[in-house]
Amino acid sequence: MSTTGDGDPWGITTLDLFELLEDAVQSDRSWVVATVIAVDGSAYRRPGAKMLFGPDDSAFGGITAGCLEGPLADVASEVRRADEPEIATFDLTSDDDGWGLGLGCEGIVDILVEPVTRSWQAPVEAYHRGEPIALATVTDDTAPVPVGTRAGIAVDGTPIETGGPSLPSSVLEGVSERAGELAAAGRSETVTVTTGDGSVNVFVDGIDPIDRLLIFGGQPDTRPVSRLARSVGFHVTVATARGGQADPDRFPNADRVVATHPTDLEELVDDRTSVVLMSHNLLDDRLALEGLLETAAPFIGLMGPRERFQRIREGLEDDGVTLSAADRDRIATPVGLDLGGGETVEIALSIVGEVVAASNGRDGGRLRDREGPIHDRVQSQPE
C-alpha cells in the first residue's frame, strides 16, 4: 500500500505512519519522530499526534494545519545531528513568538522530537497486532531521569520491554496504572510522578491499535468504499462469495482480497473490525449477518432499503435468531450518513463516514451543533 496519503505526505494516516515507523525502526538511517505531548488552548491536533522526518529531510504526517512544519523540520535536523531527544514549544497565541511565525493562533503546543530507535519496535508491533499499548516517556528536562527514558505498558499495567534506557521502578510504579487506562482508551496525557529523588513528568501515549474494515461484496460499488476507507486509515479487507471476483487487481486500494463463504466471515473479524455488507445478494447478506452476530464486530452496516432488511430479519427469525438490543444498536441499515448525494462516490463517502463516526463513538452530526470542544479533552488524574 502507498504510504504517501494519495501522493500527499502531509495527509498520511496513522496506519501509513506506523508502516513507515516499522521501516524506520529496521533502518540504519536516521529517522526522527515528533509527537505532540501537550496543548494549552486549541490546536489542529491533540496530544499523541505524530510526524516522521526521513534522513533526507522528507516529512510525513501533519500535526498542525501546516504552520509549524518548517520550524519543526529544523528541530528535527538538530535532533538528528545531536542524536538526542528535544522538547520544542511553540506559542501560537502571539505574533511575537520567537519562531518568526506571526500566526496569532489560539494554543501553545509542546512537541517531543526524538530519533527513531528500537524503543519504537514494541509499540509498532502491538499496533499492527491490534493490541493496545501505552508508551510512557520522560519529558521533563529538569527531572532526575533523562528525557526520552521510556517503557511500554500494557492495558493491565504490565511493563513491556522496549530496549534502551528504561524507567526506574519508582517512576514505573507511579505511572503504570494510569498508563494501562490510557492504553485501553487510546488516549494520551502527561502524568506527574513524585519519587524520593523529585518529581518526573511522564508523557503517556496511549496508542490506539489499527482499525479494520471488512467489506463483503465484489461489485464495482465496493471499489470507492474500499478506496475511501483506506484513505482515512482503515486496514481494508474485501471479501467476496464469488471466487472469480477475488482478484486484488479489481480492488487496488484494499490491503487484502479474499474469497470466502458468507458463513465464514467471522474468521476475518475481531473487536476492532467494522463490517459493511454490500453483496447485493439477499441470501448471502442474511447468512453473513447471522454469522457476524456471533462475533465482537462493533459495527455492521447493511446496504439496501429498510424493506430489504425486514426480509433479512424475518429470515433470521425463521432460523430462530432474534436480534438483541445490542445487535440492533450495532447494525446500521440503510448504512451511511444522510449526505443527500446520489453519485457513486457520494454514496461511498456516506458509508465510510458512518463507519468513521461509529469507530470514534460519534453519530456523525454537524460540528456547529456540537457543544464544547471538537476534540475530547483528557482530564489529568490526581496523584
Q: Overview of this structure, please?
A:
The protein has three domains: 9-116, no CATH class; 130-207, no CATH class; 212-359, 3-Layer(aba) Sandwich (Rossmann fold), CATH 3.40.50. Strand 7 and strand 8 (159-160) form a beta hairpin. A six-stranded parallel β-sheet has the order 13-12-11-14-15-16, with helices on both faces. A five-stranded antiparallel β-sheet has the order 3-2-1-5-4. Helix 1 (14-26) crosses helix 3, helix 5 packs across helix 9 (344-359) and helix 6 (282-292) packs across helix 7. The chain contains nine helices and 16 strands. The two termini are 44 Å apart. The protein is elongated. By secondary structure, it is α/β, with parallel strands linked by helices.
Q: What is the oligomeric state here?
A: single chain
Name of the CATH first level of the largest domain: Alpha Beta
How many structural domains does the protein architecture include?
Answer: 3
Biggest beta-sheet profile: 6 strands, parallel
Structural class by secondary-structure content: alpha/beta
How far do the termini sit from each other?
44 Å
The CATH superfamily of the largest domain bears the name NAD(P)-binding Rossmann-like Domain
Helix content: 25-40%
Give the percentage of residues in beta strands: 15-25%
Low-confidence stretches: 1-5, 97-104, 379-383
Radius of gyration, in Å, reads 23 Å
- State mean pLDDT (0 to 100 scale): 88
Per DSSP E runs of 2 or more residues, the count of β-strands stands at 16
Order of helices and strands: HEEEHEEHEEEHEEEHEEEHEHHEH
CATH topology of the largest domain: the name is Rossmann fold
Strand order, sheet with most strands? 13-12-11-14-15-16
User: Can you count the helices?
Assistant: 9
User: Can you name the CATH architecture of the largest domain?
Assistant: 3-Layer(aba) Sandwich
- Bulk shape: elongated
